[in-house]
Amino acid sequence: MENYKKHILILTPGFPKDENDDNCIPPFQIFVENFKGTYDWKISVVTLHYPKNKLKYDWHNIDVFTCGGNDASFPKRFKFWKEAISYAKKITEEFPISLVHSFWLGECALLGSVISNRYKIPHINTLMGQELNNSNKYLKFITLKKMKVIALSERQALIFKNKTRREVDKIIPWGVRANEINANEMRDIDIIGVGSLTSLKNFELFIEVLNEVKKNFPDIRAIIIGDGIEKEKLNQLIENFGLMKNLKLLGNLKRQEVLNLMSRSKILLHTSKFESFGYALAEALANGCYVICSRTGFARRTKKMHLANEGKEFVKIIIDLMNNKPDYNPEIPFALDKTSAMYNVLYNQIAKGLLKSSA
Fold first, then answer.
1. In this predicted model, what pLDDT tens digit does every residue of 284-298 receive, in sequence order?
2. DSSP string covering 85-124, please?
């Protein structure tokens, strides 16, 4: 048994079912794996809903306990909450927990507060997605002043402040792995899109923009990676615009396949209406793509990243890039090792009681 002195309990709605499950919250799992391999902390994970079955397994030398909630409705959901609390009791009896780290400001944050109060240990929460919208039924039950809150981007931190009237304690962006940086010069794909086929990701605008760009570049080649409820609608739009030879919907792919296609692409066109962070933007930059996106997540103007407000701006930026000689040198917005280092400092400060809340 390894000689650990400190122990983190992670609470999450989902976690990879095995070491090959690389599409389950990629930036989160990449961080956990990197942190575990770098710093002297024992990590245990309790996951509520995914994987769907109740079991215990080893993931990169981390004990994972699944509740098997499978997104159950209420009141059945309470059963899996009790299961998570029971796991926490068992885990801390075997090796005392130093702090609990919940992800998403939802039910895991609520359970983290219960466990924190019960075992008198600090609680940290990382904001992850759309949990700051008006439909978050858990927010009114969470005592924010008793936890440390981490945002992924400045925009997300501002949304949190406007919603709760308190500052986040830290902003820690997701980082990119050093071995996933690619400067490939062979770019046979003009435009790539990555994300779920939902109204939030706004791929209808992606297709409309491509249709306008095609007037200047008739043979333009584009792909969209992802699946979702708007697939039929988008296929119909592609047919209506006559883009069948220009745009292919590839469905869900393994993460490494996505990165390989990014390294073959010139431009990532990201028309999403909202991102808490936008990890696909970071991945695309690291693979040498130019990125064109709206003002969302960590997006900002750089040499390789361009911001647009509406369709005409997207079209103009793409045409300008296609007409100029590009370079495909990677741009690294955040490094994974730095993300892990920032969390290590934070964990130690919290465990030692050195960090005061911003509440």
1. 999 999 999 999 999
2. HHHHHHHHHHS--SEEEEESTTHHHHHHHHHHHHHT--EE
Q: How many C-beta atoms lie closer than 10 Å to residue 261's C-beta?
A: 17
* 227 vs 241: CA distance, rounded Å: 20
Ordered strands of the 148-151 beta sheet: 56-59, 62-66, 42-50, 7-14, 99-103, 123-126, 148-151, 170-171
CA-nearest of 82, 9, 85 to 41 is: 9
Give me 348's structure tokens: 């130690």
DSSP summary character for residue 245: T
pLDDT digits (tens, 9 = 90+) for 200-211: 999 999 999 999
For the segment 250-297, what is each residue's pLDDT rounded down to a tens digit?
Answer: 999 999 999 999 999 999 999 999 999 999 999 999 999 999 999 999
Element (H, E) at 313: helix 311-323
Q: For the domain 7-175+336-351, what is the CATH code?
A: 3.40.50.2000
Q: So what's the pLDDT on residue 1?
A: 46
Closest residue by Cα to residue 131 from 142, 146, 147: 142
CATH of the structural domain 179-323, one choice from 3.40.50.2000, 3.20.20.70, 1.25.40.10, 3.20.20.10: 3.40.50.2000
